[in-house]
């Protein structure tokens, strides 16, 4: 019997007050019905259920203000057919963007998603608190079991006065091509040469052979990941440290931690500078 993978996609939105979508991978269509093209420029809050919109706006501000990574939010998002789906959105700030992986809330075998949410678990949907997967979580909003709402009148500080964010870089890598790390999308040009073309191999910027081997090993761990009714296969998450040749002027080597997350469409790689 053929295994059927539960779907997940990647969404990038900007750090403005509207949280406008700037990129989405194809599986968003299976999850919500919208095509990636239809979502471009659309505010995230257009999709959020009206009862949760203000909380979602408050949380967006808080994530930016605290420069958070690996947060997990449970909230209802509107499907194109007009209904709503209870979704899980795992998000991290990547300098000028917020990058997130989106899936249905119940598609989390073994509570893996919650285990990775070191930045906190936030529940916006009042009726979600009874679900079994939330009873496992140890960080739900400001305290265990509390539905997140934030300030009733919205953020007290203008978005223009938010502090500068750290230099995390989010990249999408081709999950299905073996023996390479083809770049599909990246959140910031500051690490790479201007005009770098899509499908370039990230491995060309990792000069140390042992580090390249460790990098490809981490990719292999997440590349084969699949979830189905029998549970997860492989692993959805891996990390490794390596030296990346970056291209400010002049070029320089930077030590980074790479955090790999598997999604249906691609591997999401977040680079956290160590030097």
TrEMBL record:
It comes from the Eukaryota. CDD domains: PAS (cd00130). Pfam families: PAS. GO terms for biological process: regulation of DNA-templated transcription. Coiled coil: none annotated. Residues 15-67 form the PAS domain. Gene3D superfamilies: PAS domain (3.30.450.20). NCBIfam families: sensory_box. This is PAS domain-containing protein. It comes from Serendipita vermifera MAFF 305830.
């Amino acid at each position: 019997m053929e295994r059927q993978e539960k779907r997940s996609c990647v969404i990038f939105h900007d750090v403005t007050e509207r949280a406008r979508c700037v990129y989405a991978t194809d599986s968003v269509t299976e999850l919500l019905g919208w095509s990636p093209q239809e979502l471009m420029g659309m505010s995230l809050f257009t999709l959020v259920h009206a009862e949760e919109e203000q909380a979602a706006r408050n949380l967006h501000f808080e994530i930016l203000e605290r420069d958070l990574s690996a947060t997990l939010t449970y909230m209802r998002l509107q499907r194109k057919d007009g209904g709503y789906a209870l979704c899980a959105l795992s998000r991290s700030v990547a300098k000028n963007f917020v990058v997130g992986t989106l899936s249905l809330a119940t598609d989390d075998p073994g509570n893996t998603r919650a285990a990775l949410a070191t930045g906190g678990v936030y529940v916006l949907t009042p009726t979600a608190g009874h679900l079994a997967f939330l009873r496992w979580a140890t960080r739900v909003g400001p305290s265990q079991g509390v539905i997140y709402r934030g300030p009733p009148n919205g953020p007290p500080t203008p978005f223009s006065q938010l502090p500068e964010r750290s230099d995390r870089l989010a990249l999408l890598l081709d999950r299905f091509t073996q023996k390479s790390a083809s770049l599909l999308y990246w959140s910031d040009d500051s690490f790479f040469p201007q005009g770098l073309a899509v499908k370039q191999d990230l491995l060309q910027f990792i000069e140390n052979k042992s580090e390249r081997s460790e990098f490809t090993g981490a990719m292999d761990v997440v590349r084969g990941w699949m979830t189905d009714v029998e549970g997860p296969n492989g692993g959805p998450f891996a990390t490794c440290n390596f030296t990346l040749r970056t291209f400010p002027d002049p070029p320089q080597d930077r030590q980074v931690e790479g955090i790999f997350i598997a999604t249906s469409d691609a591997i999401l790689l977040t680079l956290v500078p160590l030097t």
